[in-house]
Amino acid sequence: MILRFLVNQNLSEVVYLNQGKYHVFFSGGYRLSHENEISFQLTDQITSEQQKVTSTSRIRCNIEGSKSVKLFQFELVKNGNYIIRLNGITGLKMKKSRLFLINMFYSQSSGHESQIELIITNEY
Prior knowledge:
- The chain is mainly β.
- The chain has one helix at 100-105, and strands at residues 2-6, 12-17, 20-27, 31-33, 39-44, 53-63, 66-76, 80-87, 93-95, 117-121.
- The strands form three sheets. A five-stranded antiparallel sheet has the order 1-10-3-7-6, with no helix packed on it. It has a three-stranded antiparallel sheet with strand order 2-8-5, with no helix packed on it. The chain has a two-stranded antiparallel ribbon with strand order 4-9.
- The longest helix is centred in the last third of the chain and has 6 residues, at 100-105.
- The model is unreliable at 108-114 (pLDDT under 50).
């Protein structure tokens, strides 16, 4: 299962997730830069209990042909509706290349956060 959302300041979505391990990626390039610390929150819609989300090292890969960077992962012990929220994305930019010099000489930025996708998958 792969869920995709356009990143924006007010990202708050209710999704049904099965139990299991999930990975959270930002899609649009291989180099992510941001002004603030990005946080990803996952809350059980019925109990309002926040689920544990851990930060990961920035793993770069392709998700369905999209250049992506993994930032978070979490594991659910039960199926249910969960509210996902994304905070701290002011000034979020995604560069197409991992190489600093290429990014410096070529304008390969995905622009601001509205062109970047948040991907949640259990298939990584």
